[in-house]
Amino acid sequence: MSKLKKVLLFLIISVVVVVAAFLTVSFLKKKNKDSKVVSVYAASEIGYYNNYNYQDMLYGNVMTTNEQRVYVNSNQLISEIKVEVGDEVKIGDVLLVYDTTAQSLQLQTLATEVELARVAVLVAERELEELKNTTPIEETTEAPTTVEPTTEAPTTTEAPTTEAPIEPATPSDATPGDATTEIPTTEEATTEAPTTETPTTEEPTTEAPVDEEATVGDEVLEEEKTYTEKELKQAIKDKEAEIVQLAISYQIMQVSYSIMEYQLATGELICTCNGVIREVNDPEEAIANNQPLIVVGQTEGYIVETAIGELKLGKVSVGDTVTMMCYDDGMTYTGVISDISDIPYDENYYGPGESYYPMTVSVIDAENLTMGMYMEMYLDSDGSGEESFYMSAAFILYENGGYYVYKDVEGVLKKCPVSIGKVSYGEYEILSGINQDDYIAFPHSSDVADDVKTKIESVDKLYN
């Protein structure tokens, strides 16, 4: 056999071996694929349709200016509660009756507090008048003049030491004389002694009495209350602010006294708004938990104050309706945007970046609401009300800049592209590629591949 024939034979055998190996592997793969079965799940169970746009979700608390909340304290004894939950009440209706026996002493105490508050206002007004009549001093300091006496102090202390030998010398020379003549000379010496001692005692006597009188004498206190022109203006400003606060406290006490006086006279607490009794709690529990004893609410007049970002301002307007979800009672309500402010909050209120504007939403048919309840509100940003289909991100693959899913197509898996919209809280808005009638495989299984047979399972099995 020639060399050429041997080479050709070798090549033919190699090709046959490679083809046989390829066919064998393909056959085994096909057989293995045919033996695999991947579970698929209804897209309607994995995803959901929702007309709520999470990026257009707002938050706020229920508020009202017409709700009446009745609080009691341990000093107020309740004789009778006149209302029950669900009762309709009007302004002037009696809600409860107090036992006024214990309130008489409390009223006297409050009367004393009112009088003290009135006196405090008068005293502050008198002090303000004195400040206004005060003449400010010049701002020049006399520090150098006070330093000079201290430097001269050594000269005054030397003077007594030179005169001290002279003082005893005069009495010693006068001792041979008569007693009557000695007395005047000693008196002259004693009169001279204070004069010679005055330099030494001048500094302490001028400083010490001032410190003592400054704490005791009213006249000296007034003399020490000196102000520069700037200090006097500030003192007057502070005193005026103090008077305002004292006057407010006095007015509040007067109102409290009038209310207690009325309650003591009638023993009745009346309703201040038209509405429905929402709560009637046990008095002891209400006091212990700082809760209202009685809550009177209205079917109208409830609002929710929230804020809307500047990027959404063009999507909403006054009069638009919003869907509201109350977490406290689990109920869904309808609201109407009643006001959008033209002035945004301070940039630090919601953090730097997008500006937020105050917005008020009025609640319709707020039959079960009370003040303070927490609300979530969803805006229909495009006004169409069309629902969007959302699916968990765990069922969607991201490869080479695109999104894909494995879904059932005539009994086998197919890798299909999908179009993604908004992403929120680990969920994707599916714009196209999947609908709720499709069956989807969990894509992170090792058996998932194109053309693998499928088996429909309940989504509950996936989580078991």
DSSP strand tally: 22
| Oligomerization status of the protein chains | single chain
Trace the largest sheet across and list its strands: 2-16-20-19-18-17
Rg from alpha-carbon coordinates: 47 Å
Structural class: alpha+beta
The helix content, as a percent range, equals 40-55%
Low-confidence stretches: 144-222, 381-385
User: Which term fits the overall shape?
Assistant: elongated
Outline the secondary-structure elements.
Blueprint: H1 3-35, E1 37-42, H2 43-46, E2 48-50, E3 57-63, E4 68-70, E5 77-81, E6 88-89, E7 94-99, H3 103-132, H4 143-163, H5 166-173, H6 179-216, H7 218-224, H8 229-266, E8 268-270, E9 275-280, H9 283-288, E10 294-297, E11 303-309, E12 321-326, E13 332-340, E14 356-364, E15 374-378, E16 388-392, E17 397-399, E18 402-409, E19 412-424, E20 427-432, E21 439-441, E22 453-457, H10 459-462
Parallel strand pairs: 1-22
Antiparallel strand pairs: 1-21, 2-16, 3-11, 3-15, 4-10, 5-7, 6-9, 7-8, 9-10, 11-14, 12-13, 12-15, 13-14, 16-20, 17-18, 18-19, 19-20
Helix pairs in contact: 3-8, 4-6, 5-6, 6-7
Characterise this structure.
The protein has 464 residues and is an alpha+beta fold. The chain has ten helices and 22 strands. The strands form five sheets. It has a six-stranded antiparallel β-sheet with strand order 2-16-20-19-18-17. The two termini are 70 Å apart. About 18% of the residues have low confidence.
